[in-house]
Amino acid sequence: MRYAALAGRQLFSMIFIIASAGHFDSQTIESAARHGVPLPDLLVPLSGVIALMGGLSVLLGYHTRLGAWLLVIFLVPVTLVMHNFWAAPNAMAFQVEKGMFLRNVTMLGGALLISYFGAGPLSVDALLTAGKESHAETPQSPSGRLTSELLRY
User: Fold this and answer.
1) Closest Cα to residue 153, out of 26, 5, 41?
2) Of the chain's two ends, which shows fewer C-beta atoms within 10 Å, N or C?
């Protein structure tokens, strides 16, 4: 099961990491302006940075809960403002935006689960936590701790 958590984190984070580059594109900024995003020249690139940092955090399992909360902070306004299907001008746009809205809602659910459960056993967080616990229990050289942690995985 520990490999399932690792694979899930990797798959989940990919969309945020890949899509974050588009937040620096002038077409994306113009689209956000058409959707009524205030200060799109500032907020769209900022949202790209938040998505990238949250995605990398979840991918690596480093400060994973914080990274998941960054993704929640990213997803809520983006979902409500950019995928407001209820205001779509035609049936085709309604269907596309509704699909994107529902996709983001499911990703929001995933981010909330990760924020609660954390990264799982195959993560930087787990390695750091295990290192702190073994250091508190018995004195051991740094190289001995690292070796024992690596052997455990």
Assistant:
1) 5
2) N
84-124 pLDDT, tens per residue?
A: 999 999 999 999 999 999 999 999 999 999 999 999 999 99
Residues 34 and 58: beta-carbon distance below 8 Å:
no
Q: Rounded to two decimals, what is the model's pTM?
A: 0.83
Coil vs helix vs strand at 89: coil
Is residue 98 helix, strand or coil?
Answer: helix
66 dihedral zone (left: phi>0; alpha: psi -120 to 50; beta):
alpha
- Residue 21 CA to its chain's centroid (Å): 14
Tell me which amino acid residue 107 is. M
Question: Which residue type sits at 112?
Answer: L
Q: Cα–Cα–Cα angle for 73, 112, 62, nearest 5°?
A: 80
Tokens of 12: 């989940």
CA 46 to chain centre: 15
